[in-house]
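Listing S7. Sequence submitted for prediction.
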Amino acid sequence: MAEREEGGKLGWFVAGAVLGGAVALLYAPKSGKETREFINKKTGEGKEVLNQTGKEVLDKGREIYDRGKQIADDAADLFERGRRLVRS
């Protein structure tokens, strides 16, 4: 639950940052060409950050899945061992 709340806070932070950036661009004292170049540069940087973050989240998800699967397998093994003991 705490992770879910943190994700929500992060989402609002990102949305605020994007909105703030858009407002700053509207009031920027640069020419249109300079502004477009700036936007393209920042968009590329943003894509790189999102790709890296996505990879980290995917890796963490796999790790959690593997741990959960191992716990489930261990529990099934213990259950089976207990069932055999009861039958004996």
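Caption to Listing S7: primary sequence and predicted structure tokens for the chain studied. The mean pLDDT is 84. Helices lie at 2-26, 32-87.
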